[in-house]
Amino acid sequence: MRRAVRPVRKQGRRTLPKLSVWNRLLLLFTLLFLVAATAVFTYYYVKFSRIIDARLSGEVFSESSLVFAGPTLVSRGQPGTAQEFAARLRKSLYAEAAGGSNTGFYRLVGERLEIYPGPLSYFSTSPDREGPAALQFANGRLVSITSLDSSTPLSTYELEPEVITTLFDSSRSKRRLVRYQDLPKALIDAILAAEDHRFFEHHGVNFYRILAAAFADIRAEERIQGGSTLTMQLARNFFLTPRRTIKRKLMEIFIAFLLEQRLDKRQIFELYANQIYLGQRGSFSIYGVGEAATSYFNKDVSSLSLADAALLAGLIRGPNLYSPYRYPTRARERRNWVLHRMLEDGYISAVEAEKACEAPLGITRQNVEATQAPFFVDMVKDQLLALFPERDLLSQSYRIYTTLDLDLQRAASEAVAIGVAEVDKQLGQKKYPKGSPQTDPYQPQVALISLDPHTGQIKALVGGRDYGVSQLNHCLAKRQPGSSFKPFVYAAALSSGVDGSQPLVTTATTLLDEPTTFQSGDQVYEPENYKQEYHGQVTLREALAHSLNVATVRLAEMIGYEKVRNLAIAAGFNRDLQATPAIALGSYVATPLEVAGAYTIFANEGEYVAPSFILAVNDSSGHNLWRSSPARRRVLDPRVSYLMVNLMESVVNNGTAAGVRARGFSLPAAGKTGTSHDGWFAGFTSNLLAVVWVGYDDDRELKLAGAASALPIWTEYMKRAAQISAYGKAEPFVAPPGIVTAPIDPQASVVASTGEPSVQNEVFIEGTEPHGPIPKEGPGGILSRLFQSRGASQVPVSPAVQPAATAASPTLPATQIIQPEPGKKKGGIVKRFLSIFKGGESKSKGSVENGPSQDQPVPSNEKEP
Questions:
Q1: What's the total number of domains in the chain?
Q2: What positions carry a catalytic annotation?
Q3: Which of 391, 520, 748, 791 has its CA 20 to 30 A from that of 470?
Q4: Do 181 and 154 belong together in one domain?
């Protein structure tokens, strides 16, 4: 039986269902979108990767040059603790262990501090190199210093210079870099609680937080809450603009993911801690917690307390909104909010939170001058720009070592703050239009410059009362120095005791102090004493001590105005000085810096040393690029210099500057007050010199004498300086060889016998001391002025002025007619006679006709009580 055969079906290919046109288009667009998205992602990945790599390669932050103060001299017996000295070393970039810093490191074991300068130490290239040393402390004092190289006991030691600031560009920002391991746990926790408590859990972006922040903002119809993580904030601040757009937010998220791939959490947090903006300090922007710790608390970041840390963390959201200086109540509330967040997140206990909430803000007084010396730094930058290209200064990590003493700078800023408040009170400087700032153009300005008179190194400088309001450095402003210039007249006169010039002038020379008209070319000059009080016959000591104008002009006329000018220029004054009677009263302009430099000829035994403020410039490897070599020159014989110091001691002890003693400064000191439109005081001890100026920017009359305006500031400064170990050991001024003392009776004008009631010991250059009667001046008047030559410039001698008779120089005749210089027309007798009654061609009282000008300045009349 035949089997039925089934037909075999052919196995055909399975075919896809036919796609519609729309489905095909959708697929195509999907593929194109994926390709485009991949391309865009790749483009931005590569772009931002390169930006991130470039930004994070090498030095993350722009390493502009660092400006350091000068080395700090410490000595056995001075107050201090090992911890305090270690804090100073940290500000000098020292590390706590070897290898932590190329500048150096230290070891702190109980009360013993071991110091090891490194290859980038200032002393590595300094001629006076300091090696490693051990400092031992006990009972709050430094009791011993031992060299670790030789085990030799030392009496003094220089600490590494502290960092003042970084050189800044037009943005004027300040930053002090810190490492993550240097941050206290309280600060890390405070920042996390305030800004991103899930930082160590997310991968750069917290979408839940972003949505919650957006919802909160929508409900409040304003931006009240931030949704950015720390990583996103870092991405925004490092790479993007602050514009708030959706595009920027997407880029911020993208960069945050990339940062999380390249860096670990600690590295990200360290970058964030060094980058965040934390407010203003004067005209500087504060970046990073390291700089903020110094600016707000004057502490190293590692020393911040819990309350300090919470305050800084609270400032991140709004540094100006929560400024503890402008809004202390608001700042306290913000700090306590951070503390409560820390409590909620489990970072601190309830007891710790309560204690920190009750703590005061603890911020340091906002004194920019004391810690940053902005006027000084501006001077440093100006000089550096004359030596190096600006791009190198802002990128090559140079180390600029200056002469600044931060302890003295602090003393200067405090003295200025106290002094200007006193000046304001005397002048009634509280009447301003409503809404005007506390510091405005209607208030008097101030300048204080202090230097080492033996080296010329500027130790402290305050160029104005508020740098944030005005950056004009008044230490460089030209103003009339008034009677603070008079010592140069007396020094030029006393130089006759060593240079052989005539007439011979000694400290016993007498001058006639009475109303007098002085002739200078076609000008007639009539200076007046303060309150028009005249003293008749006076010695040089009395004339200088009581700042007698007429007697001083007589002395200048006697020795020749040109001699005064030559001495002043040799002492560092500008060449605008003119050889006229007005020069004797300081009527030609000079800067406080010039006056300070000029006074070194008195405090430095007759040698001028130019003021300087940069010690050295090293590159990033520690190699020296430039070193200071200030100009020095002999201007006065040391004996003449000592006579002037001795005379100026009388000014301080019982003359116009007696307020120095009345205000409690007791160290041996010499100086001179000055009053023009402004107030001046220049004075010094054996190891510190300071000049103070007070006046208005528009050159209005201050209406306060130098003794009432500048002198109190000088005294406050020197009292504080005396509390610093290096400057509290001022010695009495010592006479050099060739100085003798002789008893003088100024009332009887004779060389006195010892033991007489009115006798005074006077100092002389050996060989010029008087041995016989001391003649008084003859009376001045119409006849003496009638026959006085005009235009004399060689050695003009007023007929009314006679030097003391000495063994070296006989008494000069009662009158001496000096011939006019060749080529100058001699005035007739009738013309001079009429000038006595009519004022001549330009007679004036205390000023030159037609008021002040560049060629004819208004003479200063000393207004000292």
A1: 2
A2: 195, 483
A3: 391
A4: no
